[in-house]
Design a protein that fits this description.
The chain is an alpha/beta fold. It contains 11 helices and 13 strands. The strands form 3 sheets. It has an 8-stranded parallel beta sheet with strand order 3-4-5-8-9-10-11-12. Helix 1 (33-45) packs across helix 2 and helix 1 (33-45) packs parallel to helix 11.
Length: 306
């Protein structure tokens, strides 16, 4: 595994992390505790130390699965990033809640679910600018940083072109940006990444496999079940993406190279990106994601020695 400094946080994170939206049950599979244990256990064996989750991945369910694993592991070996700003009401049904008092309740619920007394990176979760601009919200969060419940604050921007929130990150005390970035979606390169470099912000690239489309497993015409969030994607856009993926696989991915590993490495080669946080449904996918490390050199501005 290789590691990089997560911007101003100074945290040493593996360049490949584990995204855990799937633990909440919205990706076509229900995850029991033993499933999460196998995934996170294999991740640790491979040197992965970064886990990304959220309050609304199944009403803290994803966090509970992580907490269940941590009960039998060393908390200090992990960098745990979670988020705030939503109430989960059921599959694909959430409401925004950024009131400071409610956010503090969300924080305490996340701490209980994770079975920990601190969160390494607590992220504003894809909220509107009107909520982001609330001074009382960031004042309340800063007090939690001072109290030790939060080590660092971050922002998970909802739109890849949201330069308003990105540019204000340092002002509100945030040290990292999370953004959708992959070979099919390069929008952050225009404004978001330059702002991150200017502020020395860590960058977590979410959806680096484009919801699995860049895994190479799906061909044009693929159909997803009703319990899979991809079932909700626009069919015409999905078809266009899968056709583009075929072209990329033929023209850009070296022969004999896993497309998933290539796609993750493609993200990691951008000098603004600290780490990718792909999801995974089993230990084999964790291994496939970690293989991206073999395609990456240590020549990165935020690189640590292995």
């Amino acid at each position: 595994m290789k590691y990089r400094r997560l911007g101003k946080t100074g945290l040493k994170v593996s360049i490949v992390g584990v995204g855990t939206w799937q633990f909440g049950g919205e990706w076509g599979k229900t995850f029991a505790q033993e499933d999460a244990d196998r995934i996170l256990g294999r991740a640790k064996e491979l040197g992965i130390n970064l886990i990304d989750t959220a309050e609304c991945y199944g009403d803290h369910l994803s966090e509970e699965r992580i907490g269940g694993f941590l009960r039998h592991d060393k908390r200090e070996d992990w960098v745990i990033a979670t988020k705030f700003g939503h109430h989960f009401h059921g599959p694909y049904n959430r409401t925004d809640v950024y009131d400071p008092e409610d956010v503090l309740r969300q924080l305490d619920a996340s701490l209980r679910a994770l079975g920990t007394d601190y969160i390494d990176l607590y992220q504003f979760h894809s909220g509107p600018d009107s909520s982001f601009d609330r001074d009382d919200l960031w004042t309340a969060l800063d007090k939690q940083v001072q109290a030790g419940k939060i080590r660092h604050l971050g922002i998970s921007i909802g739109a890849n072109t949201n330069i308003h929130q990105t540019a204000a990150a340092s002002k509100v005390g945030a040290s990292a940006i999370q953004v959708v970035y992959n070979r099919l979606d390069r929008e952050p390169e225009a404004e978001v990444f330059p702002s991150c470099r200017e502020q020395d912000l860590g960058v977590l690239a979410r959806v680096p496999l484009a919801s699995g489309y860049l895994s190479g497993k799906y061909k044009p015409g693929a159909v997803f079940g009703a319990d899979d969030v991809r079932h909700r994607h626009d069919p015409e856009k999905t078809l266009a993406k899968l056709k583009l993926v075929e072209e990329i696989q033929q023209n850009e991915v070296p022969a004999g190279t896993s497309m998933a590993a290539w796609a993750l490495a493609w993200c990691l080669k951008h000098d603004a990106v600290t780490a990718v946080i792909p999801g995974c449904k089993d230990a084999a996918q964790v291994e496939a994601n970690a293989a991206a490390v073999e395609l990456i050199s240590n020549q990165h501005p935020q690189a640590w020695n292995e």
